[in-house]
Design brief:
Length: 444
């Protein structure tokens, strides 16, 4: 492994000079180095800004960032580059409420690791194969890319990233496949802390993350097919987790996600940004999504409802299975409600620990397997009034977060073409203290 130090800069001045006129758009950098050689480009020792360092990087290189606050928007457009902070809490990309995005990834095989992104008007980290999304303005449900054909970014990793106080999404994978969002923290997002949108099949794993003090902890829109949300802490948001269909994005309907082994609790926090649709007090929401597996989650203390199934406009929810979850102290444990004539079929429950459902008796009348695909009944329940939200800029700062092991000594991360997909049969029911050491919001 070659490394940029003083000797390397003297030895290969052409490589350093090549980046001087770069615009931070992730160019490959032309210089004299052995074919296939990988280097570590250090910020600010070898390049004054992160964007300048990224412009020098070639496939397989590591951009290693020293502690500091960097007021820039970083675009990574070169494949297989690793962007890594030396210290997760002390390497901060701060948009100052002037930049739309902290980090934008548009090339395959990129890893973003061990840093903090904050104060961006749209996203902390955006990973996308959509040219329109990379430069466009998102709407409530994600990005409306008009007539642009669907193009996927394939292969990505976001790991040990803290995304806080961003105007829409903390960590956002849109029109992307074959990636993982893991060991990260998202708070203060005015829409969703972690969002996956417009992928089918996704082959995306969202695991071991904490999302708190957001309007929604996790949202998967038109995202399905080997989509895994496993072992996360969605506690202390306005809404914990949703999986839904939305006409604003392509690849309708949402279907085929695995929501397994998550802690989804106390999602009625007032000191959070308020999403446009006003959702509050809900643990898990399935809105026009189908064929999803909600298995062995601990869903507790959500003031409105533990789990809600409903329809999105004209898109019914069909064939969702709610199995072996533990529901405790929710307004209603499971509520199925359809304000319009659009209803689903074949939704069912089995083996859950629960007390209340709406309509009553769902554990018996809608038990799995639902071989004859019966129409899903509709019920109502008393919903508490949602408190007013706060500006995303006023959300509490996160606690110190775990560091990526060997961040300063390990080489670049080799991102696999397809992530290791979890064996959901082996994912246990989580404890009520799951990942509590990383969180500000505690469950009762």
């Amino acid at each position: 492994m070659l490394r940029f130090g003083l000797a390397a800069i003297v030895a290969v001045p052409a490589l350093v000079l090549a980046g001087c006129g770069a615009d931070g758009g992730g160019g490959s950098g032309q210089g004299s180095r052995p074919d296939g050689a990988q280097v570590t480009i250090r910020v600010p020792a070898d390049a004054p800004t992160i964007s300048a360092a990224v412009s020098l990087a070639r496939p397989g290189d590591l951009v290693l960032v020293a502690p500091g606050v960097y007021h820039e928007s970083v675009r990574v457009g070169t494949a297989r580059v690793t962007l890594r902070g030396e210290n997760r809490d002390a390497v901060v990309i701060d948009g100052q409420l002037r930049q739309p995005n902290g980090v934008v990834v548009t090339a395959p095989g990129v890893a973003v690791e061990n840093l903090t992104v904050r104060n961006n008007t749209q996203n902390g980290v955006l990973v996308t194969g959509s040219a329109s999304a990379a430069t466009g303005t998102p709407g409530h449900g994600g990005y409306d890319t008009g007539d642009e054909p669907v193009a996927f970014l394939k292969s990505f990793l976001v790991s040990h990233v803290t995304a806080t106080r961003n105007g829409l999404y903390g960590i956002y994978a849109f029109s992307a496949q074959d990636g993982a969002i893991e060991h990260s923290y998202a708070s203060g997002s005015a829409d969703s802390g972690i969002y996956v949108g417009q992928c089918k099949p996704c082959r995306i794993v969202v695991r071991d993350n904490v999302a708190e003090l957001n309007a929604v902890g996790f949202e998967g829109t038109n995202a399905g097919g080997e989509m895994y949300v496993v072992g996360n802490r969605f506690v202390g948001n306005r809404v914990g987790l949703t999986t839904n269909s939305d006409h604003q994005e392509k690849l309708l309907p949402q279907q085929g996600s695995h929501v397994v082994g998550n802690l989804v609790a106390a999602n009625q926090q007032g000191a959070t940004p308020e999403q446009a649709d006003g959702g509050w007090g809900i643990g898990v929401g399935i809105d026009g999504g189908s064929d999803n597996q909600v298995v062995r989650n601990r869903i507790e203390g959500n003031a409105n409802a533990g789990l809600v199934i409903t329809a999105t406009a004209d898109i019914p929810p069909n064939g969702n299975q709610v199995v072996d979850n533990t529901f405790t102290a929710n307004g209603v444990d499971v509520g199925w409600t359809f304000p319009t004539a659009t209803r689903g079929r074949g939704n069912c429950l089995r083996g859950n620990e629960l007390t209340t459902t709406a309509p009553e008796g769902l554990a018996t009348t809608a038990s799995c397997p639902a071989a004859d695909q019966p129409a899903t009944p509709s019920g109502t329940w008393a919903s508490p009034k949602a408190p007013r939200g706060i500006p995303f800029t006023d959300v509490a700062a996160p606690a110190a977060q775990p560091q990526l092991p060997d961040a300063t000594t390990a080489g670049a991360t080799a991102v696999p073409d397809v992530p290791a997909l979890p064996d959901v049969a082996r994912v246990p029911l989580p404890s009520a203290a799951l990942l509590v050491d990383r969180a500000l919001v505690r469950t009762p």
